[in-house]
Specification:
Elements (H helix, E strand, L loop, with lengths): L1 E4 L4 H20 L12 E4 L5 E4 L8 E2 L25 H10 L4 H12 L19 H6 L8 H19 L2 H10 L1 H7 L6 H20 L26 H8 L10
Antiparallel strand pairs: 1-3, 2-3, 2-4
Helix pairs in contact: 2-5, 3-8, 5-6, 6-7, 6-8
């Protein structure tokens, strides 16, 4: 079978060709046919600008079309992930991230992936708060109130900074944040855990999206002591040591992991 397409311009030919080829494919093999069934499609453009398609070409000018493999329907693009939109914590994120020399967009991406901005989140493994600190990790970081936004974020960013310094590589640092440095050291890279691999991919996707947000001024009416969300501990009192460190009012430093 052959299809011939004539058009006034290359753009017009391409649009018409795409519609014609899609219709022919759907009629020939069905909407859900495997990609392999479409592997034998050939095309060429003759001297008059006519675009030709064929599945059994006899003309040597035909060239086999490249087949792109992807999940989902044959002619449907892979959907992009939806990035959570939350601006209430941005000013706090900038202060703490800047203090520990971590990009704010990266901190926000980790928070979005870990807890979806829920300060009272608890995972099935027992990780707690915005940045999902395990109790042992929180204790080693000196985090006394893991559900307090300020303490949890400060501890989580310090731990993320430690992983970045340890590996010097963003991908491995994120894998260590999720699976622990022991697993990353054992496999000399991202562990072959489905959860960790998906985690790293999602954080990096969010990170690329959030970088644009921090390129423009933050206008949200939020601050360390006036955030729309609760930045205090579970007993309603902010940890003064953490607050002073973030605000630059003291020389105290948190416990390193």
């Amino acid at each position: 079978m052959q299809i011939r397409i004539k058009g006034q311009s290359q753009g017009a030919r391409s649009r018409v060709a795409a519609i014609a080829l899609a219709g022919w494919m759907l009629g020939a093999v069905g909407v859900l046919a495997p990609v392999e069934a479409l592997a034998g499609i050939y095309r060429y453009i003759d001297d008059a600008g006519v675009l030709h398609f064929a599945d059994s070409p006899r003309d040597p000018r035909y060239r086999r079309m490249k087949v792109v493999h992807q999940d989902g329907p044959v002619i449907s693009p892979r959907p992009s992930p939806r990035i959570p939109h939350e601006r209430d914590y941005d000013r706090l994120i900038v202060k703490i991230a800047t203090l520990h020399r971590v990009e704010p967009a990266l901190v926000k991406a980790v928070i979005a992936t870990e807890s979806n901005f829920k300060p009272d989140a608890i995972s099935h493994a027992g990780a707690q708060g915005l940045m999902q600190l395990m109790p042992a990790t929180a204790e080693s970081l000196g985090v006394e109130r893991p559900f307090g936004v300020l303490e949890n974020m400060d501890g989580g960013v310090r731990y993320l900074r430690a992983m970045l310094d340890r590996y010097g590589d963003l991908t491995r640092a994120l894998a260590a944040y999720n699976a622990g440095p022991t697993a990353v050291d054992r496999y000399r890279g991202v562990p072959p855990y489905r959860e960790t691999q998906a985690y790293v991919k999602r954080v990096l996707e969010y990170y690329r999206g959030y970088r644009r947000e921090f390129e423009r001024p933050i206008t949200a009416q939020s601050d360390l002591r006036g955030n729309p969300r609760n930045t205090t501990g579970t007993n309603g009192q902010m940890n003064d040591r953490v607050s002073d460190r973030v605000n630059g009012n003291a020389n105290s430093k948190g416990t390193k992991r």
